[in-house]
Design a protein that fits this description.
Order of helices and strands: EEEEEHHEHHEE
Number of strands: 8
Number of helices: 4
Number of domains: 2
Radius of gyration: 21 Å
Distance between the termini: 38 Å
Low-confidence stretches: none
Shape: elongated
Strand content: 25-35%
Helix content: 10-25%
Oligomer: single chain
Length: 184
């Protein structure tokens, strides 16, 4: 699969591959997809993400939207489907121009960290301190280190800290960079 291919994805419809995004194991994957016996931080995840621009419904009705999913969930369209797509784009110049000029909005990856606010004193002040610094970019481990002394993970969780990464940004060490934080 490569940029420019037409595929079906996780959601219904026909999509053009706009971008293929390599992913790397990060501190925030520990306990989730990171199996420490097989993978280490910075290792490439075998299933990249794909950014898709939707051009058509499953019944070839022109539709413009976008999606992101794992590459393993995408299947290249058949030659017959590709012929219908190309004919439609060639015959409907107004739609083709609209489709070609559509810009996919920034993609936000969210990471939620549950905590017990009744036992997490001083956390609001730390969040405000991080808000002032995170705009320049922080890794999960940097954020967690700033929160650790006041953040209590004991159950029940009654609030969440949400940190946000934009457009799959990573640093030179292949760590995810977060640029927003808040309590939800």
């Amino acid at each position: 699969m490569q940029v420019g291919d037409w595929v079906t994805g996780y959601n219904k419809g026909l999509f053009k591959v706009e971008k293929i995004v390599k992913q790397y194991y990060d501190e925030c994957h520990v306990g989730g997809i990171l199996d420490a016996s097989k993978n280490k931080l910075g290792d490439e995840i075998s299933d990249p993400l794909v950014v898709l621009k939707k051009g058509f419904s499953g019944s070839y009705k022109p539709q413009i939207s976008w999606d992101v999913c794992a590459q393993s969930l995408c299947i290249k369209v058949s030659p017959e489907d590709l012929e219908v797509i190309e004919e439609t784009l060639n015959d409907d110049e107004k739609f083709r121009k609209k489709f070609d000029s559509y810009i996919i909005p920034p993609y936000k990856s969210l990471l939620n960290i549950g905590f017990n606010s009744r036992n997490s004193t001083g956390l609001i002040n730390k969040i405000d301190d991080i808000k002032a610094k995170i705009i320049d970019g922080m890794t999960y481990s940097e954020i967690k280190a700033k929160l650790n002394s006041d953040l209590k993970f004991e159950l029940p969780h009654n609030q969440m800290i949400q940190i946000i990464n934009f457009d799959f940004e990573i640093n030179e060490n292949k760590q995810i960079i977060f640029r927003e934080i808040g309590i939800i």
